[in-house]
Design a protein that fits this description.
50% helix, RNaseH_sf, 4 domains, nucleic acid binding, 462 residues, coiled coil, IS3 family transposase, alpha/beta, HTH-like_dom, 6 strands
């Protein structure tokens, strides 16, 4: 819809009075908001614009002075003003402005001077000393520009690439060189940057196109982040890769590893002092029947047990589990705030209630003097018909499969997490939830990337 000049003038006058576009539209019934914005912008440009004649006059030289050119370049490319508006204000085309910029970047202020106009008329007097001085000045200016360029490149290496400023420019990858060139193109000519960084024009534009194009693995990245969060930030790239294959997403482990590294999807690991319940020899130790052979042909044939400690601001919590050597399942566990005999005895009672009559496993433990050497534990083992096995003194590798479970558990749900304000009761629930998740959902490479529960189901044991 077109409007007359009188209608535009009336709308702008009302806008000046009210200061509100909405009030103008409400009162006059026209124009649209976009039209009103355009009229205001064009009017402001007209106010700023200087009226120049197209002819060569004192007010508008066809060949402007060096000061005018430098002022235009400063406003356009340093202060960032709109080139179209500056072009209309000064009366010189945008093509001329870009041409001055190109000359200035390659040769400095001397390249955009009107040399012919500035030369005096009359007899030409040759001054050899002056010529030498001029040549020296030009050479010095070129060296200064080259040093400025090197300094800017080194600054971008630190800011963009986060690398040491002493790095050799020629050892940068083409992708890194392209990032530096893109950051400096508004200040230096492309030809200068390409020559300084020794990268061909075709290689630059190839890398530039890749960096500007949408990320190839964007959908996979979103899926990886979702899987990492769903599994409480406990899975590394191998398990994430396996979950992707389960969803029929085929991608190499290398790509998964790169995506996780770039997005800082790192499993938190921190080492703490291990809890030890050893209090000396208080009864005769059982023989080490397991002898580091943690392989089992069937469930409930060989099981391991131990105690581990969790220390949070609210207090200390102790976990005593049974680890089945067949598939790593935790069939029974107890949690308490006291590492007493009842912690392990109640765990063994619970485990026995879940076994069949003919299942009599070998139960391997460390030499924890106050737990697996007391009458309560020994009497229960004899009553249930289980076989005792114990590690050698101070030899954790003899029970490494159980220690490994404690390490994985703490890496995946304890280390690197803030438990300020978490009560003991809530933390016990967190432990129980983790072990249930470990049994039913946590995939293991040794089981063909199935959870212990899924593995037993696949064998028809459940």
């Amino acid at each position: 819809m077109s409007f007359t000049e009188e209608e535009k003038k009336k709308a702008l006058q009302l806008y000046d009075e009210t200061g509100s576009i909405a009030k103008v539209i409400h009162k006059l019934g026209y124009p649209s908001r976009q039209n009103m914005y355009t009229w205001i912008k064009n009017r402001d440009i007209e106010k700023k614009r200087k009226k120049y004649d197209a002819t060569d006059s004192p007010g508008h030289r066809r060949h402007p002075s060096l000061e005018i050119k430098l002022e235009i370049l400063h406003r356009c490319f340093e202060e960032g003003e709109d080139i179209k508006s500056i072009s209309e204000e000064y009366g010189y085309s945008r093509t001329s402005i870009y041409s001055w910029r190109k000359l200035y970047l390659s040769g400095g202020a001397a390249a955009i001077m009107n040399k012919k106009k500035d030369l005096p008329r009359g007899t030409l007097i040759v001054n050899e000393d002056a010529d030498k001085g001029s040549d020296n000045n030009i050479e010095l200016a070129a060296k200064i520009r080259d040093l400025e360029l090197e300094n800017d490149i080194l600054r971008q290496i630190i800011e963009i690439l986060k690398k040491d400023q002493g790095i050799d420019l020629l050892r940068l990858k083409n992708a890194e060189k392209t990032m530096i060139i893109d950051a400096l193109r508004n200040k230096y000519a492309l030809s200068l940057l390409l020559a300084k960084l020794q990268i061909s024009k075709s290689s630059y534009f190839y890398q530039h196109k890749i960096q500007q194009s949408p990320y190839k693995y964007e959908a996979i990245k979103v899926k990886i982040i979702k899987l990492f969060k769903e599994n409480k930030e406990r899975y590394g790239y191998r398990r994430i890769h396996s979950l992707l294959r389960k969803d029929n997403i085929i991608v190499s482990e290398k790509i998964v590893r790169q995506i996780m590294k770039y997005n800082n999807l790192v499993v938190k690991v921190r080492k703490y002092k291990k809890y030890s319940s050893y209090q000396g020899e208080i009864s005769e130790a059982a023989e080490n029947i397991i002898n580091r052979d943690f392989h089992s042909e069937k469930p409930s044939e060989k099981v391991l047990t131990d105690i581990t400690e969790f220390s949070i601001p609210a207090g200390k919590v102790y976990l005593s589990p049974i680890v089945d050597c067949f598939d790593g399942m935790i069939p029974s566990w107890t949690v308490s705030t006291n590492p007493n005999a009842d912690l392990v005895n109640s765990m063994l009672d619970d485990y026995h209630s879940k076994l069949k009559e003919d299942e009599k496993p070998i139960v391997h433990s460390d030499r924890g003097g106050c737990h697996y050497r007391w009458p309560g534990w020994i009497n229960r083992m004899n009553k249930y018909g289980y076989t005792r096995s114990m590690s050698k003194k101070g030899c954790s590798p003899d029970n490494s499969a159980c220690e490994g479970f404690f390490g994985r558990m703490k890496n995946e749900m304890f280390y690197g997490r803030n438990f300020v304000g978490v009560t003991i009761e809530t933390f016990v629930e967190i432990i129980n939830d983790y072990i249930i998740w470990y049994n039913t959902k946590r995939i293991k490479a040794s089981l063909g990337y199935l959870s212990p529960m899924e593995y037993r189901q696949s064998l028809g044991l459940i």
